[in-house]
Amino acid sequence: MTSLNGKVAIVVGASSGIGHATAKLFAAEGAKVIAGARRKTELDTLVGEITAAGGAATALAGDVLAEDYAAALVRCAQRTYGGLDIAFNNVGVITPMGATTSIAVEDWRRTLDTNLTSAFLAAKHQIPALIERGGGSLIFTGTFVGYTVAFPGIAAYAASKSGLIGLTQSLAVEFAQQNVRVNAILPGGTDTAMYREMNASEDAQEFIVGLYPMRRLATPEEIAKSVLYLASSASSFTTGSALLVDGGVSINRT
């Protein structure tokens, strides 16, 4: 079953894209949602959409690079809804693309801090709260890039997201006996604002779509359904996994 009735879920990166779609899906499946991101206006709009549909959600804006924010999201879940059962940390940034030998160290550090250190900070505060509830599901957003496929010009992004898989596996082993499951979702190309920013030209978009045997990208809602699987009891024996949801791009050679 994928129902989340009675569950409390943090969704970070909920202001747009995969996080936005997942927050709405979680709420539709019965979860009470704490929606986090930097952009308060977008979060408030999301909460309005969820509550108008009969769901429960609260917004808390902040910076994922701040440990205080990671702690505040957990406190918000506990004070507003009584605890925490699920956390989806959907964070990702790509710094200016280019040759690795020309990457500024500041851009390298910002990418690793945003994509990897923020995940550590989130887990540091979310895991104790999950344990208090008798266990739960912790999910990160990784990528197939740097895992099954490599592209030139995005070394920092690939390194940070590969590191996230290692963090996922380590946490899964460390907290398995406390009934905390830890997994990473590895989306393929998804029609989000970040994708369109990276592939602004028509030629770039045609090239990317051509890599996929399905000859299309995912929608955020499609990725959200796989996140729901990892959040729910349907994946009760799944932990430490890097779940590819990439439309077959990792195996395509045509």
Give a quick rundown of the structure.
The chain is of the alpha/beta class and 254 residues long. The chain is built from eight helices and seven strands; from the N terminus they run βαβαβαβαβαβαααβ.
Question: What does this molecule look like?
Answer:
The chain has a single domain (8-190, 219-244), classed as 3-Layer(aba) Sandwich (Rossmann fold), CATH 3.40.50. 46% of the residues lie in helices and 15% in strands. The chain is built from eight helices and seven strands. The mean pLDDT is 94. The protein has a seven-stranded parallel beta sheet, sandwiched between helices. The longest helix is centred in the middle third of the chain and has 28 residues, at 105-132. It has helices at residues 17-28, 40-52, 67-81, 105-132, 155-175, 193-198, 202-210, 220-231, and strands at residues 8-12, 32-37, 56-61, 86-89, 136-141, 180-187, 242-245. It is α/β, with parallel strands linked by helices and 254 residues long.
